[in-house]
Amino acid sequence: MALGHNQSTDYYYEENEVNGTHDYSQYEMICVKEEVRRFAKAFLPAFFTIAFVIGLAGNSVVVAIYAYYKKQRTKTDVYILNLAVADLLLLFTLPFWAVSAVHGWVLGKMMCKVTSALYTVNFVSGMQFLACISMDRYLAVTKAPSQSRVGRPGWIICSCVWTAAVLLSIPQLVFNTVNDNARCIPIFPHHLGTSVKAAIQMLEICIGFVVPFLIMGVCYFITARILIKTPNIKKSRPLKVLLTVVVVFIVTQLPYNIVKFCQAIDIIYSLITDCSMSKRMDVAIQVTESIALFHSCLNPILYVFMGASFKSYITKVAKTYGHWRRQRQNVEEIPFDSEGPTEPTSSFSI
């Protein structure tokens, strides 16, 4: 989690342990980054507040609809539900990082480990569920409709996604701690070396971006070709949705992963030795990771509210709630001593 660091350092050595390679912590004293910290104190809390409010509203609606109203679910429905849960859990970590950006980490080492691990689990699983959705949309176009039902394979895939994300969060649980500057950061033992640190960074890039992006690109490209060749269907709306999903994914995720890749290369080859360049890297990682996080706010719009079926559920719920409010108002207007019968409130059923 780079956003809470107020600088580009993702990896530190233990105190009094220095090897022959260059790392940011060795020149932190001579590279004063007060302007970077001021930027983080102003930018991160404001951005996190906006993301938290928007994302909480959208993803809560998704979870409520799929959990309580939509009883017959396809694989895509299950993936979207899991995606919304992952986004919500990710958003719930943002207030902690917002406070950390202003006051430093004040919740202790255990909360540092848990919050960092939750961040990684839900960020990575969210990207993988996007890939699952694209695969299921591809199968829905190329296979029989019955094969899109949930069944046991759908739940197995969801379990595998969560398991892979949890495994990827183990380094945060093991190595994250609070340093002397009250920052929640990973501190690796000297014997692990720079190669292990860079490997963890590259693994996050591959599992959290490269693999989902390749799956989405291939599946949506084939799906678009099939839609174009299929006669007698309205093609404009599905194609626009596919294009929007891919473009938003690239715009939000690619800059952040490019910066992470540069960090991984710098860990190995110590390319950044200039203080001003280090400061620019600090700001870049904060801005690009914030943009990547905002994708969790856009998922309900991209994958749910664009769908006609889900919008019909929203309409039904709104009508049911409006009818319930009217019935309640009518009941409240009846005097307490009235013995007249009251009409029961209708229940929402699918």
UniProtKB/TrEMBL annotation:
Q: Does the keyword Membrane apply?
A: yes
GO biological process terms, alphabetically, are: calcium-mediated signaling; cell chemotaxis; immune response; positive regulation of cytosolic calcium ion concentration
GO molecular function: any one? C-C chemokine receptor activity
State the source organism's domain of life.
Answer: Eukaryota
Localization in the cell: Cell membrane
List, alphabetically, the GO terms of the cellular component aspect: external side of plasma membrane
Q: Name one Pfam family in it.
A: 7tm_1
Segments forming domain G-protein coupled receptors family 1 profile:
58-303
Q: Which InterPro entries match?
A: ACKR4, CCR1-9-like, Chemokine_rcpt, GPCR_Rhodpsn, GPCR_Rhodpsn_7TM
Question: Which membrane topology term applies here?
Answer: Multi-pass membrane protein
Q: Where are the transmembrane segments?
A: 42-66, 78-97, 117-135, 155-178, 198-227, 239-256
- Keyword terms: Cell membrane, G-protein coupled receptor, Glycoprotein, Membrane, Receptor, Transducer, Transmembrane, Transmembrane helix
The record's similarity note reads: Belongs to the G-protein coupled receptor 1 family.
What PANTHER family does the record tag this protein with? ATYPICAL CHEMOKINE RECEPTOR 4, CELL ADHESION MOLECULE
What protein am I looking at?
A: Atypical chemokine receptor 4
Organism per entry: Loxodonta africana
Q: Which gene encodes it?
A: ACKR4
